[in-house]
Amino acid sequence: MRRLPITFANVVRQDMKTNRESAARPAPSRQPVNAPLRGRSPEPTEVIVLTDGPENVLDGDFPDRRFRSINRVEMHFYPAIGQARARAMIFPGGGYLDLVHDKEGIEVALWLSELGFDAYVVTHRLPGAPTVEGGAGHPSSIALSDSMACLRHLESLAPLPLLHVGLSSGGHLAGVMACQPHAAQLAGLLVGYAPINANHRRYKAPAGKPDYPPAEKQDFYDAWPVGIATEPHGVPKVPTFLVYALHDQPVPIDHALNFVKAMQLTGGDVEAHIFPQAPHGFALRELDGTHKQWPTLAASWIDRILSDLVE
């Protein structure tokens, strides 16, 4: 297998911007996203390593690989096609038990790169998972602290507007990140079929649903209900795009409805789409239904929020 370029954050990086801008690239594509790779390589241009530890190894076969054991914090970089107009931090799902790297990481990054984003897929450690040293599990806040390390690295680069993007549990983490202080210009939040608030002990849907193991995972959901008006620390102050499945059993639409109500009560900005035929985990693959339009709707929303920044 071809060895990927690895960059350690505490080592001087090669500036790739000049090389990218000097290369002729096609204009961003707006064609339907039914074959997410469309002939492009799934390998990142660069892997940015932000902590010590053994190399992370993907489990399974492409295009359904996952990170099941995360030893160190990484960002996998997919540069924009053409000149970048923004950056995106992409948080794959996996229920905080693993990371769905191909379907909810790479494929989303390649789509956003065609929309003019420098896209970074975040590989973070998992609440309650064993540490590299084999000691007690990682604390409940590990995904947040790892993601903040990634954000600080991006904020050290030339300024560009930033979008947080997450599917499934990655959407919860993207929402938590949108509530943190940013030196970068935060443009918006894009969330798909994510358990953003109704896994919290006080707001569970359906009522009586048992807590999620490990305990650290449930503690993180309890610390950060995203989009509950009475929990202001978890209400993002940026434009948000939501896409959900009406009959999703793992992630009922209560999560989205709570968020929309919070935006109404707080004067926020949310565009929400709920599709009756969508399954849980549709991402950019399972688009046999009216939800096939969601990438086009999201692209239009992205154009709006980025244009609003320059007006």
Structural notes for this entry:
Mean pLDDT is 90; it is low at 10-33. The protein is built from 7 helices and 9 strands, in the order E-H-E-E-E-H-E-H-E-H-E-H-E-H-E-H. Helices cover 27% and strands 16% of the residues. With 311 residues, it is of the alpha/beta class. Strand 4 (86-91), helix 2 (101-114) and strand 5 (117-123) form a beta-alpha-beta unit. A 9-stranded mixed sheet has the order 1-2-3-5-4-6-7-8-9, with helices on both faces. It has a single domain (41-310), classed as Alpha/Beta hydrolase fold, catalytic domain (Rossmann fold, 3-Layer(aba) Sandwich). The termini are far apart. It has helices at residues 17-22, 101-114, 142-155, 169-178, 215-223, 254-266, 294-310; strands at residues 6-8, 46-49, 74-78, 86-91, 117-123, 162-167, 186-192, 240-245, 270-275. The longest helix has 17 residues, at 294-310. The chain is globular, with a radius of gyration of 18 Å.
In short:
This protein is α/β, with parallel strands linked by helices and 311 residues long.
CATH class: Alpha Beta
| Sheet with most strands | 9 strands, mixed
Query: How are helices and strands ordered from N to C?
Result: EHEEEHEHEHEHEHEH
**What is the general shape?**
globular
Number of domains: 1
Number of helical regions: 7
Mean pLDDT: 90
Which residues form runs of ≥5 with pLDDT under 50?
A: 10-33
The CATH topology name reads Rossmann fold
The CATH architecture would be 3-Layer(aba) Sandwich
Give the helix proportion (percent range). Answer: 25-40%
CATH superfamily: Alpha/Beta hydrolase fold, catalytic domain
Question: What is the number of strand segments?
Answer: 9
Structural classification: alpha/beta
Measure the end-to-end span.
47 Å
State Rg.
18 Å
Sheet with the most strands: spatial strand order: 1-2-3-5-4-6-7-8-9
Strand content: 15-25%
